[in-house]
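Why does residue order matter? Because the sequence determines the fold. Keep that principle in mind as you read this record.
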Amino acid sequence: MTGLTAVEVSEDNIYLDPLVKPLGVNHAFGVDVLETTRALHQKYPKVHLVSGLSNISFASRNVNC
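Structure:
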């Protein structure tokens, strides 16, 4: 963020994709994602946050939902 804002990229033009750990490995990783997203939103309220759903479901093929 510091590098982007240093070259005058406005926060509303920045998109962050926090790393999502696979829930199929550990369901507690879902809490990590929510806490990270909340912290980023609080620190950078104008920044857009995105996440790929394939990141969430990776390695969950053996999990019965």
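Helices lie at 2-6, 29-43, 53-57.
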